[in-house]
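Appendix B. Chain record.
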Amino acid sequence: MKCELDQLTVHYDIYGNGQPLLFLSGWTASSAAMAHVYEPLFADADAWQRIYVDLPGHGHTPGSEAIRSLDDFLTILLGFVDKVIGGRPFALAGLSLGGYLTRGVLLHRFGQVNGLLLVAPAIVTEDARRDVPKPTVVVRDPEAMMQLTAEEADVMALFTVQNAATVGEMRAFGAIMAAGDVAFQERIRTDPAAYRFSFDVDALLPVFPRPTLIITGRQDFVVGYRDAWGILEQYPRATFVVFDRAGHMLEQKSAEMRPLITEWLARVTEYAIKNYHE
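Structure tokens predicted for this chain:
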């Protein structure tokens, strides 16, 4: 589907009906790839309309010379929310950089958001300032690794579990990934001033007293887990999970994540009903 904004046309996909749940992807990821991974985890979310957005320069949403920083990303996302969701209450979910962008959306649409899901969220955007563990491979199957192409091996380096199952996950994910505007992504990603908001989003955000779920990987050396723990007091209704045997991709954790997400959605629904009657 397409959302026509003044700045550009945003591509997005919708699954299900009901209360909106806006899902923001990680850097380089597409809405199709996110839906491939996360729709099975929302199998019990019959009352929710899941909305997956292609960020500018990602998937089928074009980049633009006029987009200079994540501030511009946020402006576009807020325009998308206003046009597609309108004034309805909604839940927010974000993976990796999407976990950073969701906090920007939350800041500006605070009264509308009934729940927040952060999956391996980027808290700090500048790589050198992130508090991350050293790269660790917990499981490695040499035979499976020998079957990889050089490009696949580079991607698999992000996994802390490197076996045939995660190779299959990686290839299935990559097969539906729309590359997007790689030059645009590189321009933003390599400029520290562009790859962040011009303001400290966590310092500006008030305490968010609604159901929250934060899922991290113990061996995630991309964004880590300690930075996310550092903002926990801002979310008094948060469940905080650190999975062992999990890197940034939270590989092979789908079975464990699904009941956590189902329980979070139940808490969000409970909050929304209580808030409506009050």
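Further analysis of this model is presented in Appendix C.
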